[in-house]
Design a protein that fits this description.
mainly beta; SH3 type barrels; Thrombin, subunit H
């Protein structure tokens, strides 16, 4: 894949984010689960067993808002689904027989790790298998079936460029649903930049075809010498950050795209135990007479003492007083902090209000998409807050 195509993909993804951020709305109620239609041409009805509203194709993602039984004792889910049509993605609300919906907190269990994006969610179970569901515009049934058949998975995530998921198994195979990768059978770690991975021989490799240049920002030279000590990596847009076993955070840049704010002083990012990279919204941009929310790369690192380092400065100000944190999750509108006692705190970005997470307890993992949050409880079940769909219309 050449450089022009990668820039096009980056721009396409950012425009998609701008669209979803401009038209998203607040949730009416917290769902009890997240699922996917598992059969073709399934009816969604006004009431359990009632008249049909429309039919949904296999692979349609749904929020499960409630459950009930009909007069015959058959189980039904009350769902909110986003139907894919030739003219758009209208929201449908109604009842579907439970047997035609896979996933949801009732069926997605034994989870150890979860990653969300604006378009869906991927989860890693405790036995190393993968569950995946997403907006039918980005995650079709064939892609979901591909991930459901994987085993021995050790890492999952989503690709910020290709609007898809990735998974890495114990043999180093990298599975992705967007482009052919160059690092098959030798991946040790990869991040969501969609560009770079660390191979099993501890070299930094680009997963795209084409002439890609990597420039080390911190350290400015010799970052390759520490790759064997990297225990985690993440990224957003053209940036990758790396966490070494001694708690240092390194940063590398793909191509020559500059940040929209002053470079963090990466040398002070030390004694870290976890890292996070994403895109958040601060301020606005005006293009051709239209005003959009400005999306910028965002980074966070949790230190051993439970404090948080973050960039840009506006994000750092939101987390300056956080204590006893184990992990962070950054979304366009808010940042979440998983505390050591299993509860979650949240701060809204640029004046936005995060979902109410005060009732969440006993969590071991968190993640956030554009408009919704997911938590993994110690028993492997999931909790949700927010709104997956783009609108309530």
């Amino acid at each position: 894949m050449n450089k022009k195509m990668m820039i096009f993909l980056r721009c396409t993804f950012l425009l998609y984010l701008l669209f979803t951020l401009s038209f998203s709305s607040c949730a009416l109620a917290d769902p009890i689960g997240f699922g996917m239609v598992n059969a073709s041409d399934v009816a969604i009805r006004k009431e359990a067993g009632g008249s049909r509203i429309t039919r949904l194709p296999k692979g349609t993602s749904v929020w499960i808002m409630d459950s009930a039984s009909d007069s015959r004792g058959d189980a039904w889910y009350h769902v909110r689904a986003q139907e894919s049509t030739k003219t758009g993605y209208p929201v449908r609300k109604g009842w579907i027989k439970a047997e035609f919906v896979d996933a949801g907190s009732r069926l997605w269990n034994n989870i150890q790790h979860v990653k969300t994006a604006s378009f869906g969610m991927i989860a890693l179970t405790k036995d190393g298998t993968v569950l995946c569901a997403g907006d039918s515009a980005f995650c079709d049934p064939q892609e979901q079936d591909r991930y459901s058949g994987l085993k021995d998975i050790g890492q999952i995530g989503f690709t910020t460029i290709g609007c898809g998921f990735f998974a890495v198994d114990g043999q180093g195979n990298l599975y992705r649903n967007d482009v052919q990768n160059r690092a098959a059978n030798q991946v040790r770690l990869t991040g969501s930049t969609d560009f770079l991975c660390i191979t099993r021989d501890n070299t930094l490799q680009c997963t795209y075809e084409g002439n890609i240049r990597v420039r080390w920002i911190c350290p400015q030279e010799g970052g390759e010498t520490a790759l064997s000590r990297v225990i985690a990596m993440d990224g957003c847009d053209s940036r990758s950050i790396f966490l070494t076993d001694d708690g240092k955070v390194f940063c590398a840049q793909v191509d020559d795209l500059a940040l929209d704010y002053p470079e963090p002083d990466w040398k002070t990012w030390t004694d870290a135990v976890s890292i996070e990279a994403s895109i958040c919204s601060f301020g606005t941009d005006t293009r051709q007479g239209h005003t959009f929310r400005k999306l910028v790369p965002a980074f966070a690192a949790v230190r051993r003492d439970g404090t948080v380092l973050a960039a840009p400065e506006s994000l750092a100000a939101l987390t300056a007083d956080w204590r006893d944190i184990r992990k962070t999750a950054i979304g366009p509108d808010w940042i979440l902090g998983l505390k050591k006692d299993g509860t979650v705190i949240a701060a809204g970005i640029d004046g936005h209000t995060p979902p109410d997470l005060s009732a969440w307890t006993d969590l071991v993992d968190i993640s956030t998409g554009n408009t919704f949050c997911v938590g993994v409880k110690r028993d492997g079940s999931l909790v949700f807050a927010g709104d997956f769909l783009l609108s309530d219309d």
